[in-house]
Amino acid sequence: MPGYAAYMICTTPRSGSTLLCKLLAATGVAGQPDSHFHTPSLARWLKTFDLVRADLADDASAVSAVLKAAQARGTGTATLFGLRMQQGSFAYFTSQLARAFPEAACDTARIEAAFGKTLFLHLTRASKLDQAISRVKAAQTGLWHRHADGTELERQSPARAPIYDAGQIAAQMADLSARDAAWARWFDIEGVVPMHLSYDALSCDPSAVLADVLGALGQDPAIAGAIRPAAAKLADATNRAWAARFLAERGPDTAAARPSSTNLTHR
Predict the structure, then answer these.
(1) Where are the alpha helices (DSSP H) in 49-119?
(2) What confidence score (pLDDT) does residue 254 get?
(3) Which of 21, 47, 135, 165: CA 20 to 30 A from 171?
(4) For residue 232, what pLDDT band results from cuts at 50, 70 and 90?
(5) Maximum separation of any 2 CA atoms in the chain, in Å
């Protein structure tokens, strides 16, 4: 038996992680996965989990208290702790783990000191053009996710019409590629062989991907058959038109695109 106590979804924005988190949460056996450490700020972490810094002896104690609170929230009534980790939040997260577990020799040792034996899931999206368009469009319109019934699930700003911007799309392609590469480097450094998941497979057959993850976690894969997706794709004719226009204007080679200077939310 795998014997996992936790799993971490290692991902980048617009890779399908919200859909995967909701599928896993709906099983009742895989915890409540979410970006429990999304904001790189200990003060914000404490506020998120209703903890008061003055009640804690020092910063190491504060981090330990946050980790325990997050583990409780991310486990819920299940026995597995679920965590979504965006690459942009990861460096700060690991720096705080080092503060809480200074005796541990590496990042994975610290993660497992906090949460127990952990399965690492690497969720990626092959088409960086589609991923970049999704991110740019979400930031422009303010709408990041819809429920399966079409109603809004997550909106971060008032509605605006999307405007095609080839420069911003190219910049986001470069940024997202760099984030994927950063995950790959970390896996190599830590000697981690993650379970690889793709946006395309998840979008095409979410039940099959969910079953695979449950099986890897030592849970009954058959549970996946009763779970229906709670989040809908946002891609529409606008996304397709932007992709066609971008390829017509610039072609597929955008490796030289500079990293984005636009502050887009990492979701």
Answers:
(1) 59-75, 87-100, 107-115
(2) 54
(3) 21
(4) confident
(5) 59
pTM of this prediction exceeds 0.70? yes
Closest CA to 181 of 137, 138, 134, 122: 122
- pLDDT of 265 higher than 90: no
Rounded average pLDDT over 87-101? 97
Q: Write the DSSP string, 130-199.
A: HHHHHHHHHHHHSEEEEETTSSEEEE-S--------HHHHHHHHHHHHHHHHHHHHHHHHHT--PEEEEH
Domains and CATH numbers, the chain: 6-250 (3.40.50.300)
Give how far Cα 99 sits from Cα of 64, 94, 182, 248, Å: 9, 9, 22, 50
Quickly tell me which residue has 């072609």 as its tokens: 251
Q: Please tell me the number of Cα atoms within 13 Å of 11 on its side-chain side.
A: 29
In the numeric block, the tokens 């890897």 are attached to 216
